[in-house]
Structure formats: C-alpha cells, structure tokens
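INFO batch 0412 | record 1 of 1 | parsing
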Amino acid sequence: MRRREFITLFGGTAAAWSATARAQRPKGRLYRVGYLSMGTGERLYSMKAFEEGLRKLGYQLGENVAIEYRFADGEVERLPALAADFVRLRVDIIVTGFNPLTEAAMKATTTIPIVMTTGLDPVRAGLVASLARPGGNVTGLAVDAGGEILAKRFEMLKEALPGISRVGILFNPDVAATRTRLTAMMEIAPTLGLTTIPAEARGLDSLEQAFALMVRERVQACVMQGDSVLFNHRSQIAEMALKNRLPAVSTQRELAEAGFLLTYGADVGDLYRRAAAFVDKIFKGAKPADLPIEQPIKFELAINLKTAKALGVIVPPLLLARADEVIE
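INFO prediction complete | emitting tokens
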C-alpha cells in the first residue's frame, strides 16, 4: 500500500505538456547530462524522479536535454573510467549520487559542473569547502541530516522491537563517510540502551562472513548504513537477514521493498527531483561554487509487513500509522 503517490516518467517516453510548460522550456540547445550510477542499469525510482524534475522545469528528453547514463554494476573500480567517459563526451553537467561517485567525477574533471544528489557529510568528506559556499565545481544536495536521524532510526527499531538490546551495524569500510557515521552511531546507541556490533562488508562476497559475525555476537537486529555498493545487493542482504532471523533496518525505501523490515531516511526521490533545479540553474549560467548545498526536507518511513510476518514481529499500530509506505 503506497501512501505517497509518485508520478513516473519513463526515459525517452514523450509526455504531455501544458502550454505554460512549453512557453517556459529552454530553447535552441540540446544540453547533455552525464548521470553516473553505482547501479546495474535497472530503472530506479531515483532516475525517474530526476527526469520528472527536469520535465517540470520545461525540459524534454531528446528535445532539449539528453541524459547519458553510465552504470558501475556495483564495482567501484569502474567509476574512474565511467567518469572519464563523460569528459570525453563533453557533457554539460555530471550528476552523481553517494560520495564515491562524486569523488570519481571530481578526479576526472575540475571544470565540468558536478551536481551530487545524495552527498554524505560532504564538507568532512572533502567534496565541498562549505555548505554555504561549496567552491570548486561541485554542488547539490546532502542526504544525511546528522546525528538526529541516526537516533530516530534506532528509536523506531526499539519501537518495533521493545526488548532489543544488541544491534549489528552492517557497513562498508571502504567508504570514509560511513566510517564516520559508524562512530556517531556507536556513540548514540548507548544513550538508548543499545550495544552495537560493527560488521564489515565490502561487497557480496563478504556478506556471509558479516552475518556470521552478527549471529555469533547474538545481535537481535541489523542496521545497514546507506552505501551505494551494498545497496546493489539489497535483495541478497534482505534474504540473509531473514534466513538468520534478523530484522533489518536501513535508510531508503527501496531497501524495504527488497525485504528489509523498515527504512527511515531522506526521501531520495525528492532529492533527485530537487537536483534537477541545480541542473537548470547551471544551464542558465549559475556557478556550482556559488550554489549552497541543500539539506533533506522530506523524510519517509517504509515498513514491510510481509517481512514482519515472516519474522513474527508485530509492528505497533502507532508506528504503522506513521508510515509513508506499508508493503503488504
């Protein structure tokens, strides 16, 4: 049951336009956007959201804007070559997601504007000089709202599982920002009566070992940090969590749809729609260095009742009532 409806724009499909939108549409040039993804080429709702954002600003795919999609298939080592391809194609803007994608684009070019959609602690990660004045050729949106949202996720986990005391944290140690967030999570957890057990996983081949560690340490649930590599293995992680009777919690709705018990975090679709506004401003002459980094303004809670039933978890009615999406 989806409570927040989402308008889907399929890539390359012509859409109906109002007279106003046609009048406002930039004319006379075909802009080229390089869209760098850690994904596998499947049409994620974030991609559709970005295209929708462009459409609402008067852009039409194939008419006045073209999007060059490049997918790393979950392999970080492919990112430099993919980013370099955008430089070769002389795209006008590169759109990225999580930090490794932005870092790869930054190494490939210091002149092509880069719009990040889901930067994690971008100042500390060295992606921008400051939130107010990014400097350089990078701007966009941050996905992380800081310690408050980390605490909120723990609180929701405790609300769903009142007797919980030991929580595993699944994270990718190769991403510097997730190491920083791990430290924050381990500081916040004790204030809520939780003991945390970190479990490293760099990819699919290390997931079995990570889950074995959590089972051995008798954790009662698993919290997965947001990470573009692990995101690509969300179905396998959900299956392993269910197999080991571990309720899994994370950041993004697509993870709940894959089988995680619940997710709570920034509305990623909204971030990608808002990224289109950055692209539009840059097309019209704005410099990335002068466009402040924006924070999430919409958050969403998704709960998978099928997973809850399989685990024997009874989700409290009050928590269920707050959900933006309930998967049944």
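INFO post-check: Confidence is low (pLDDT under 50) at residues 1-26.
INFO record closed
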